[in-house]
Amino acid sequence: METLEEDELCFPQLLNTSCTKLKRSQFEAILTYIILSSISLLTTTLNLLVIISISHFKQLHTPTNVLLLSLAVSDFFVGLIMFFQIVLINGCWFLGDIMCTVYQYTAYVITSASVGTMVLISVDRYVAICDPLHYSTKVTLKRVQVCVCVCWICSVIYQSFLLKDNLEQPGKYIPCSGQCVVTGDYIAGLADLFFSFIGPVTVVVVLYMRVFVVAVSQARAMRSHVVSVTFKGTVSVTVKKSELKAALTLGVVVVIFLICLSFVICLFYFNSCLNPLIYAFFYPWFRKCLKIIITLQLLQPDSCEANIL
Fold first, then answer.
1. Alpha carbon of residue 190 to chain centroid
2. CA of 76: how far to CAs of 110, 160, 263, 281, 297, in Å?
3. How many whole angstroms separate alpha carbon 307 and alpha carbon 77?
4. Which is more confidently placed, 218 or 53?
5. Per the structure, how many domains does the chain have?
6. Would you state the pLDDT for residue 200?
7. Contact in structure between 290 and 283 (CB atoms under 8 Å)
8. Are residues 278 and 252 in contact, defined by beta-carbon separation less than 8 angstroms?
9. Half-sphere exposure of residue 52, counting CA atoms within 13 Å on the CB side?
């Protein structure tokens, strides 16, 4: 009976303070390991390709793509920290309190940055669709780069403040050896719920509802205008077709992100793997970049000047 109890503990030598392992069959543990490892590898690889593509090719240095780059960076790190989830397959953490705090802190920063980037993407599409004549002056490359930097810096500062006690005393809130958790007070939890979820989701939903209404109304106006002036030849349109396609693509990204964020952490991790697949499906430039990278044409002189669009 004593042997059985020891086998159920994360640290058998710490009989009184050790956490218990999760009860999983060998098949379930192996299957979970394979699935998480595959998602982690796929997520890091695909998002690294997005990062290389947007960073390397000058034609892709646009405000919208800078936002996609920020999202790809956060998704890339999500893929990396998934390796820590693999460590926790049996419910035991063997890397110590300091690494536990670093892991949890990094995960929270990445999540905050991802949510902030989604808000910026929504603002970008809102201006592009609802105020297209002033888009190029309002949304410049430099302004978007500054906004992205501010988003990441604020995420780091915000989570540092929120997890202050955990950073100062790693393992302070861990009830038993072998567990990896960070926590705070009730008020901080409510504030985090609002600033990291309710507030951003509300902004994203409102902006995209406005984008949808404007896009539909402009599409109807364009159709009626085409019918009335067909004999006059070409028609001037307020919103470019490419902008509408970008709004649709990023809208899909945002919706899937919100769905995954609203459910469980596994779906949130899987969402980071889905984003590059969405880009590959909707964006021809991403498929062209993949071909250039895979065939090593990227190493050729002046490859950054290649015609991607």
1. 22
2. 10, 21, 21, 19, 23
3. 29
4. 53
5. 1
6. 85
7. no
8. yes
9. 19
- Alpha carbon 96 to chain centroid distance? 27
Buried/exposed 203-237: b ≥16 CB within 10 Å, e otherwise: bbeebbeebeebbeebeeebeeeeeeeeeeeeeeb
Residues 155-175: pLDDT tens digits? 999 999 888 888 888 877 788
pLDDT confidence of residue 70: 93
Does 10 fall in a domain? Answer: no
Domain for residue 52, yes or no? yes
Give me the helices (H) in the chain, please.
2-7, 26-56, 63-87, 96-130, 135-138, 141-162, 164-168, 186-193, 199-228, 241-262, 265-282, 284-294
Which residue, 131, 126, 111, is CA-closest to 197? Answer: 111
Residue pLDDT, tens place only, 15-53: 677 788 877 777 777 888 888 888 889 889 989 999 999
Q: Which residue has the tokens 């809102």?
A: 126
- Residues pairing with 20 in the sheet: 9
What tokens were used for 102?
A: 């670093």
For residue 242, the enclosing domain spans 21-305
3-class state of residue 13 by DSSP: coil
In a domain, 9, yes or no: no
> What CATH number is attached to the domain comprising 153?
1.20.1070.10
- Cα separation, 72 vs 287, in Å, equals 16
Instruction: Please determine, for residue 264, whether its predicted confidence score (pLDDT) is greater than 60.
Output: no
d(CA 306, CA 136): 24
Is 128 among the domain residues?
yes
C-alpha separations of 36 from 43, 73, 84, 215, 261 in Å: 10, 19, 10, 39, 18
As beta bridge partners, residue 177 has 18
Structure tokens at 306: 């290649």
> Closest Cα to residue 275, out of 73, 90, 87, 104?
73
Sign of CA dihedral 92, 97, 98, 102: positive
